[in-house]
Amino acid sequence: MKLIEIESLEAYYGDMQALFGVDLDLRPGEAFGLVGANGAGKSTLLRSMVGLVNDRRGHIRLAGDDITHMQAEDIAQQGIALVPEGRMLFASLNVEENLMMGAMNRRQGHWTLERIYDLFPILAERRKQMAMTLSGGQQQMVAIGRALMSNPRVLLCDELSLGLAPVIVNQIYESFARIRQDGLSIILVEQDIERAISVSDRMVCLLHGQVTMRVDDTSRVNLDQLSAAYFGE
Ligand code: ATP
Predict the structure, then answer these.
(1) Residue with CA nearest ligand 1 atom 20
(2) What is the pTM of this model?
């Protein structure tokens, strides 16, 4: 069964075409990696899936329903949540208020404030602190927690490691084991290829808005091929 099916997806910013016929599918409970050089179209693919790229063509299906042209709010309600690149927290809100923003239009499910605090105990300690005064790693935890508060079926993570020390990145990815416990499916964009390989079950490499390589089993990836697909050699 396929939870997400993306077929011939194109995305445009005005006259500029950023995605050229991308096909991808996601199975329930799977962690799926997206890798590729700067500007390859990774963020555009994630943002298209949550309705944040206006001009998108082709098909995106969630559990068989075509959501290609749905509004962002409706897609969120259908169960796709994005942890955006750069976190995009609400600067005027404290930690708990940021988390509660994810609960607007919330679906029924596992995640509550208490469970987010159990996942990231430091956020419970800092619950009344303004979000932007936290460290980068803690801000990333808030961004993940905010997305989880909507109780998504699919969690999209855009470069969680950006600007964070490796030890903090390890902590963040360690939380994935618990996040995935209930069968949540994840698509993650990751600059660090080794990290993407270790976290994902399958992955694709994008270059100039096209898939240049599919890896159906990350435990048997050919790194030379992946490097060629990444750099377009
Ligand atoms: P990065 O790793 O740098 O985030 P990426 O693989 O996520 O790169 P995208 O951000 O999706 O790539 O960008 C794909 C292409 O679309 C690039 O050529 C980029 O310049 C362009 N692009 C992205 N966002 C916009 C925008 N809002 N308006 C115009 N062009 C954009």
Answers:
(1) 39
(2) 0.94
